[in-house]
Amino acid sequence: MKLYTCLKDGEFIKSPLPGGYAGWWPGKIFGRLDCKSGMKMKKENRVFFHTLEDAVNEGYRPCKKCRPIDETDFFRIQHLVPMYLNVEEFYNRDNELKSE
Fold first, then answer.
1. How many CB atoms lie within 10 A of CB 43?
2. 89: helix, coil or strand?
3. Distance (Å, rounded) from C-alpha 98 to C-alpha 75?
4. Residue 79's domain spans which residues?
5. Model confidence at 65: pLDDT above 90
6. Which CATH number fits the domain that encloses residue 64?
């Protein structure tokens, strides 16, 4: 049985399922598992997240191509990213990260 290494509550676990989201760790971007951009990345650059909250807690921003977060999701996780007033600001935060 194949096991995936997945981030859950800040710790890596082994799971028979990859989780809800996949991320590109060099750029700290995450998206849906079926995202075309994510499918092209090298396996060594990929990280799986159990939940949306796990990805956000690790400092990842959502993919602009597959757009894994909508307004409802953002409302649910906004307490994790209080510096962003809306979902569009959260999607576009990569410019801020590059300047840090």
1. 5
2. helix
3. 25
4. 4-99
5. yes
6. 3.40.10.10
